[in-house]
């Protein structure tokens, strides 16, 4: 069980997340939507402890992960894997090594850079790549892969951590529609087959409706919607994206489909 209790994040005078509270009591595919600057990325980065919270608690099976330090914090970051819009691979390393870097917390930087991985770990990495349909790329340098392939490598690396939860920050924002579908299919399969909660920041409403069991809408750092995708009416979408009454339905639809990537979001 995951419980968010009045989680708040301030950057100076700017409040990026305002008292976020919700509960995840079973493995779900959750989409977080909202315009740029809504607080989406900040919320995910607090879960993974890449950004400290100003106040509040995030309880995972009763343990406040915001209070973890040192080894316990690093262990949580291993258990809460995260993939990013820009993939964060090491371009000059081969794909197999990039995937095995998911074991970085177990080996340390020196061992990983020297590629001192076990035969079992290499086999596990190959199986992860096979699962994602890119085993043939194992010995290629990551920089030679397409964007869609690189994102699947990043997912394979995350799976090497044997995580309890998977976070994805705008995982398809830089991909073409075909590769976006492949990546979202992979994340949905992880949710259903591995029984993991997957939380994705998404920039299109259609994607959230198609893949997610639950959608959380954010506006100006606040959660303004939390429910099933089929409850996302046009009026609700207007509220999430901050459209005023003069915004036509057609314009709203266009805005939702285009969406917006975020820096602070």
TrEMBL record:
This protein's record includes keyword Glycosyltransferase: no
SMART domains the UniProt entry points to: AAA
Alphabetized UniProt keyword annotations: ATP-binding, Cell membrane, Membrane, Nucleotide-binding, Translocase, Transport
SUPFAM superfamilies for this protein: P-loop containing nucleoside triphosphate hydrolases (SSF52540)
Similarity comment: family membership: Belongs to the ABC transporter superfamily.
NCBIfam families: ABC_phnC (TIGR02315)
Protein name (record): Phosphonate ABC transporter ATP-binding protein
